[in-house]
Structure formats: C-alpha cells, structure tokens
C-alpha cells in the first residue's frame, strides 16, 4: 500500500481550498510538516486555522520553488492554486501566468526532485467545454467537442497537458488529477458564488443550463484523501444530482433577468466593470449549455462519495450566506389562499 | 399522491379520453377486427350512437356520485385551484427535482403533456395499436419512422407512451444536436427528458431502465418530399442497434401513419435553409403562402403501431462490435416498420378520416 505523506507542500494556501487543505493536513499528527506557498500571505483567520502549517511566501513561477522542495524534502505536492477567479488573481493575463507558467515551474521542480513521490493536481471540469453537441454527462474519457476557446478552461487544458507529459517523464510518481465542478458553500468565494448572490441574476434568454455543484467541504476532503494515498488517474469530482439554473435562482429567491444571446458579452462587460461578477466567456457558455460530469469513477475507484448533493450544497450556500429572497416565499402562499377564497366564493356549477 | 395530482387536471378532458382509451386497447391486435372497427369509426365519424352509450355506461357506474354532484362541484374547483397553486408555488420556489439529463417530471406531467394532449386526442385522433408490445418497466428502445417536416410525430409518440400504456411511461427521445442549439427549444427538450442522439446518452438511459425513443432516419426522413411519403430512408449508421445490443434491451419497432400528411412538403428552398443553418426550408401548400396560418398542421388521422419486440439479450457480449450483425438487425427493424406501414396504409381509406 502507498506510504503516508510526511512532508506536504500545498500551493495556493491564501485561497480557500489550499488554506483549508493545509489546515486539515496540519491537524493530522502523522504528517511531519505542512508547507503552504502562495504569492500573498493568507488572511489572519486562515493563518490561525492553519495552526502548525508553515507559510512560505514564494511565487511558484520562480525557480525558488525547487529549492523549497529540495531543502524541506517534500514528498507530496498538492497543486491547488489553479484559479478561475481573475478578480482575486490580479487580472486575466496575470491569472493565466499564475496558472500555466506556475504549473510548468512547479512540475519542473518536481521532475528534478528525488524526494517527491506523489503529486495531486487540482483541475476543473471546464476542460470538457460546453456545447450543444456534448453528451448529457461527461466521463473522464469523453473528448471535448468544442475545445474551450480561452481563459480559465484553456489554461486548465494546457495544465493537464503538462501534467500528462510530466507523468511520462516521471512514471514512478503517481499523479492524481481532480476535475472539480463549480464549488459552492457558505464560505468559499468564486465568481459562481457572486453570480448567485446578485439580487437580479442575468441568464441567457431561451437557455437553461444544468448545473452541478460540489460543496466546499467535500472539495477539501477529496484533496485530503488524494494527498494521503496513491490514487493515480484522472477523476471527475462533483456532487450527485443536478439543479437547473432557473431552479437554482428560484431556490435562492433571486430574480432572473433573461438577456438575448447577442447582448450577453455586453452585460458580461458591465458586470465586470461594476465589479459585480467577472465571468469569462467560457463560463458564459456554461450558462447556455450546462455541464454534468459522471462521478462513478470517483465513487468506485477513488473511494469517495461527496457528503452533499448538488441541491444540498446549494441550499447550504443559501442558508449560510443568509441570502434573503427578493420576494418572500410566503407571498405565494398568500396568493394561493386568495385564489382559494375566490374559488369558494364563486357560485357552484351544479 | 401522484394519482391525486393528476386526476383533477385531466378532468375537463376526461370525457373524450375515457371514450377514446378503450378503443386502442380493443384494436390492439392488428387484423380483421381492428380494421372493421376502423372503418366503422370512419363511417360514423363522431362515433354516432356507439360512443354515446359508451360514455353513458362509464357515467352510470358511479351513480351515487352523480346524485351528489351539486355539493362536490365547488370542492372540485377548489381542489383544482389548490393544485394549480401548489404547482406554481413549487415552480416559483424551485422545490422540484430534475435528473442528470435535465428531465423535469413535474413540468412534463403538468404542463407539457396537457399542452400536447388536445393535439393528440382531438386534432390527430391518434389510435394506438399493440401497446402490449411495450414493456411496462425496464429499458427498451423504441425505433420509429420519421416524417412530417416538424417532429410532431415524435411528440405524439411521447403522449402515446404516457397515456395509452397501462402504466404511464416517459419516452426519452434522442434528438439531433440542432435541437439543443436552438434557444427555447433546446431547453424545453431537455426538460421534457430528451437528450442528444449519441451512444453515451442512449446507453446511459437504457441501462437506467428508461424507455428510449429514436428516429434513425433523422433529417432525411422528416424532411423528405411529400411524393416520397411512407418510403423509409436509410436508418442512420445503426448506432441505435449497437446501443440496444450493449444494454441487452429489446428493440420495439414503431410505425407511425398520418404524420406524413400534416405538412406536405412539395418543395425545398435550399438557399434559405443554408442561410438559416437548418437542413431544409419546406414549401407546403399553405406555408409560407398563408404566413403563420401555414404552421397549422393538417388534421390527418394517425395510427401508431408498436410492433413485436426484437430481443437482443440472447446475443453474446461482443455482438455490438460485429458490424455485420448490427447491419442485419438494422435492416430487420427497418423492414418490419416498412411492412407495418404498408399494412396500415392498406387499411386506411382516407388520410383525414382514417
């Protein structure tokens, strides 16, 4: 069986996923050292949570990362810094730099290292794209019909390419690639979360996407499991079940604003300028067609079943964020009572 | 609980439905009997005395309720209002479930089916034959001929599978990618339980025990000229057969008569079609001559016959990868449907009266 990790390096610790993973690993006494790296230091609250985990302020695009790995004798690397949130990463081109160049540099360091014996990479289900010609559910082997045109999804496709060539060069290091669906929860901050927090949610007129979500806690738990044992391969990670976009908006008590397809980029630019939501064109396509992944391999081969279904995760997000419905659901009940009263008052049709 | 929900909504369509429902059952065995019945129905269109007594009998049975009608009247209205209110509340607060394919059972049963039902019962007066050939549970692949310029035949088959089987089943259709790219239509198709025609989706649905419908002629079939009516086109590449073989589910040939006459396509404007990005742009006697009025389908009389299932579970596991076997089975299904079409056509005297 695979060896338990003793020195773990986690990238992207100032973000939700990396930070919480580092905290979980630090709480495990069998792990000797937990190193967290990022370009910006984690928040005070996150640092407290991380406990004995050490923070190293280093840019993974810098060869210095190789030195960190070799001096600390890191044996497990969890690359959790892939981000689809340009706002938090300092713009789109910066995000791409961090994602792609950072991964290349990190993989180069791992390839050189003699101590690294396990690599976990956080990827995204965005690599499947979203188009009308796609099957209803994607398995790990489904070929994307429409290669994502740019942005985050293209970064992820390129990163997975580099990871594959890395495992060709270092077949002795088992690599776990985790393709996450959109994360949601009461604490995480993503563009998807901000989108649902808008009081009036723009949607594409005439389209209703199927949305699959993963609870933030499940995401951390999956990464933790992948870091603890050798589970090589590519796995889709998502909660069970599906919400329709319109249904999710109604569940959150928001109002939807249908926008005709040609005006969608315009509205996207507006919400970005207004610093409401920064949606990449790829994510907008997702709002047209939706994306659902098959998680059979995760449950059987990887041995993990998410605790929250998509619907439960979404409800937890709504409850945890204290999203107040724009229209009180009790109004509908009152309207029904009024209609019933009218029906009773009507003369009986004998 | 679903019983209680469904019954009141159907109430206003209840009369004619109760009359039309026994008819297909009696006609379930194609042969002399059903033909006589059909000609009888054609002669006295509107059913004549026979139908009136039929309805009288069904009303006679609960005589007690008839006497007490004045009091339950308003409560029935109240029940309907309550039910519609509940439905709207459920919709507005998002308290319903959809499956991985986006199938919204709540919406399909309460909105889609009631919308299609008048077309099915009153306009096309669809008669189903051989409903006993459709398994009541478990996966099965329904293969049908395609016609009519717009896929009304597919929609009517979903109503047939829901209303005329002893146990209502939701037919999950496999549709072309064009459908899912159209705004409005694509979303509606997903909600009604339909998905893209590809092996991955077909096998996922079949192995989940769903009744899957496929129209393998595709655009060649639905967009053929009126002169070629009831001539089956090539049956795709046999992908549907390999999906059924892989899942070991029976193939049910389904022959639809009447759909060819709804929009008789007499010409095709290829240039306009290319401009719009659609496979054909039909010219019918009424479209585009009469404008939107040309979209009203002609009221042809329809027959939907479910044929004897072709069982696939006896083939060995690798059978789906044997192209010769797949081609042979495809031909067998195609022949079966073509012969049934000829037989049904021979028994039909008039496209509009049956």
UniProtKB/TrEMBL annotation, chain A:
Residues 8-238 form the NAD-dependent epimerase/dehydratase domain. It holds the Pfam family Epimerase. InterPro entries: Epimerase_deHydtase (IPR001509), Lipid_A_modif_metabolic_enz (IPR050177), NAD(P)-bd_dom_sf (IPR036291). It comes from the Bacteria. This is NAD-dependent epimerase/dehydratase family protein. It comes from Actinomycetospora lemnae.
UniProtKB/TrEMBL annotation, chain B:
One of its GO terms (molecular function) is acyltransferase activity. The keyword Acyltransferase applies. The keyword Transferase applies. Residues 140-259 form the Phospholipid/glycerol acyltransferase domain. Pfam families: Acyltransferase (PF01553). PANTHER family: MONOACYLGLYCEROL_DIACYLGLYCEROL O-ACYLTRANSFERASE, TRANSMEMBRANE PROTEIN 68. This is Lysophospholipid acyltransferase family protein.
């Amino acid at each position: 069986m695979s060896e338990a990790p003793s020195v773990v390096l986690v990238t992207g610790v100032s973000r939700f996923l990396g930070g919480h993973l580092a905290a979980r690993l630090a709480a495990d006494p069998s792990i000797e050292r937990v190193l967290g790296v990022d370009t910006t230091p984690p928040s005070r609250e996150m640092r407290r949570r991380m406990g004995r985990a050490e923070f190293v302020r280093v840019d993974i695009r810098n060869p210095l990362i190789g030195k960190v790995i070799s001096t600390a004798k890191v044996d497990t690397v969890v690359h959790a810094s892939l981000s689809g949130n340009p706002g938090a990463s300092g713009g789109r081109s910066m995000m791409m730099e961090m994602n792609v160049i950072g991964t290349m540099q990190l993989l180069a360091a791992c390839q050189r290292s003699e101590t690294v014996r396990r690599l976990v990479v956080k990827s995204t289900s965005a690599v499947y794209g979203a188009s009308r010609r796609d099957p209803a559910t994607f398995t790990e082997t489904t070929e994307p019909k429409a290669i994502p045109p740019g942005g985050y999804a293209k970064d992820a496709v390129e990163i997975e390419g580099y990871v594959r060539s890395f495992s060709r060069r270092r077949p002795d290091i088992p690599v776990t690639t985790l393709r996450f669906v959109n994360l949601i929860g009461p604490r995480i901050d993503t563009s998807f979360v901000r989108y649902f927090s808008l009081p009036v949610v723009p949607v594409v007129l005439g389209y209703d996407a199927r949305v699959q979500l993963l609870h933030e806690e499940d995401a951390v738990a999956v990464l933790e499991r992948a870091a603890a044992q050798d589970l090589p391969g590519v796995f889709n990670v998502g909660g069970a079940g599906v919400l329709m976009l319109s249904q999710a908006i109604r569940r959150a008590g928001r109002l939807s604003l249908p926008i005709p397809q040609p005006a969608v980029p315009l509205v996207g630019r507006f919400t970005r300028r207004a610093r409401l939501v920064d949606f990449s064109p790829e994510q907008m396509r997702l709002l047209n067609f939706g994306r659902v992944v098959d998680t059979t391999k995760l449950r059987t081969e990887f041995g993990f079943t998410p605790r929250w279904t998509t619907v439960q995760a979404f409800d937890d997000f709504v409850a945890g964020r204290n999203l107040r419905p724009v229209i009180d659901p009790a109004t509908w009940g009152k309207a029904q009572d009024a209609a019933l009263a009218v029906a009773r008052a009507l003369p009986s049709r004998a | 609980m679903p019983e209680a929900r469904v019954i009141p909504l159907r109430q206003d369509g209840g009369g004619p439905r109760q009359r039309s429902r026994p008819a297909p059952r009696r006609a379930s065995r194609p042969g002399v009997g059903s033909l006589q019945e059909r000609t009888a129905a054609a002669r006295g269109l509107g059913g004549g005395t026979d139908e009136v007594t039929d309805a009288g009998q069904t009303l006679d049975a609960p005589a007690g309720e008839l006497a007490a009608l004045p009091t339950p009247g308003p409560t029935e209205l109240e029940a309907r209002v309550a039910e519609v209110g509940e439905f709207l509340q459920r919709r507005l607060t998002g308290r319903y479930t959809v499956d991985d394919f986006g199938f919204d059972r709540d919406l399909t049963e309460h909105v889609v089916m009631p919308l299609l039902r008048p077309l099915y019962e009153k306009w096309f007066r669809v008669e189903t034959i051989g409903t006993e050939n459709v398994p009541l549970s478990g996966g099965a692949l329904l293969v049908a001929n395609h016609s009519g310029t717009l896929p009304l035949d597919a929609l009517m088959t979903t109503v047939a599978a829901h209303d005329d089987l002893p146990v209502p089943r939701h037919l999950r259709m496999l549709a072309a990618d064009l459908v899912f790219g159209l705004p409005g239509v694509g979303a509606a198709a997903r909600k009604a339980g339909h998905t893209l025609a590809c092996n991955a989706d077909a096998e996922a649905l079949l192995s989940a025990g769903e009744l899957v419908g496929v129209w393998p002629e595709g655009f060649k079939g639905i967009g053929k000229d009126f002169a070629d009516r009831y001539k089956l086109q090539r049956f795709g590449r046999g992908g549907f057969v390999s999906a059924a073989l892989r899942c070991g589910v029976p193939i049910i040939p389904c022959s639809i008569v009447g759909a060819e006459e709804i929009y008789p396509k007499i010409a095709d404007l290829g240039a306009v079609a290319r401009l719009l990005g659609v496979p054909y742009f039909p010219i019918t006697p009424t479209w585009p001559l009469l404008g939107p009025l040309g979209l009203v389908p002609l009221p042809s009389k329809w027959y939907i016959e479910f044929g004897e299932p072709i069982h696939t579970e006896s083939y060995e596991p690798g059978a789906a990868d044997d192209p010769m076997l797949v081609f042979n089975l495809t031909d067998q299904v195609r022949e079966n449907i073509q012969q049934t079409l000829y037989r049904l056509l021979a028994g039909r005297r008039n496209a509009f009266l049956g």
